[in-house]
Amino acid sequence: VTTHALIMIFFMVMPVMMGGFGNWLVPLMMVMPDMHFPRLNNLSFWFVPNAFFLLGVSGFVEGGVGAGWTIYPPLTSIDFLSDPSMDLAIFSLHLGGASSIVASLNFASTVANMRHQKRGFHKIPMFPVSLGITALL
């Protein structure tokens, strides 16, 4: 896996497409002022720049992240890469994953709990419902 692939998947598709559009469109479509847990939303947002910074730094530490195309476990072991670059890259992906988990908790609770009293699940627009189901998966 190249750095380009890591950036595009974990720092473009997931945060921007799911988190960015979700945080923007779910409150609009469900006619509410904000997400269910705004501080949790803020926490998931601030995990992403820190994770991106760690991924960027990992490329400049000694030998860089030289784990091949698939981040194959024998190539990422301490025998092959003794410098901390691979550790920084893996920790960066863990932070990005934590951001996605926190955001999915927020989406699931928002779709389940923050609807009008007279509005059932059959009257919620499809995008918030699909985002809530994706968050539960």
Could you explain the architecture of this structure?
This protein is an all-alpha fold. The chain has one domain (3-136). Helices cover 64% and strands 0% of the residues. The chain has helices at 3-29, 38-58, 85-113, 126-136. The longest helix has 29 residues, at 85-113. It is elongated and about 60 Å long. The two termini are 25 Å apart. The model has no long low-confidence stretch (mean pLDDT 84). Keywords: Copper, Electron transport, Heme, Iron, Membrane, Metal-binding, Mitochondrion, Mitochondrion inner membrane, Respiratory chain, Transmembrane, Transmembrane helix, Transport. One of its GO terms (cellular component) is mitochondrial inner membrane. Residues 1-137 form the Cytochrome oxidase subunit I profile domain.
Question: What are the defining features of this structure?
Answer:
4 helices; 64% helix; 137 residues; mainly alpha
List the helices and strands and how they pair.
Elements: H1 3-29, H2 38-58, H3 85-113, H4 126-136
Helix pairs in contact: 1-2, 1-3, 2-3, 3-4
Summarize the structure.
The chain has 137 residues and is mostly helical. The chain has helices spanning 3-29, 38-58, 85-113, 126-136.
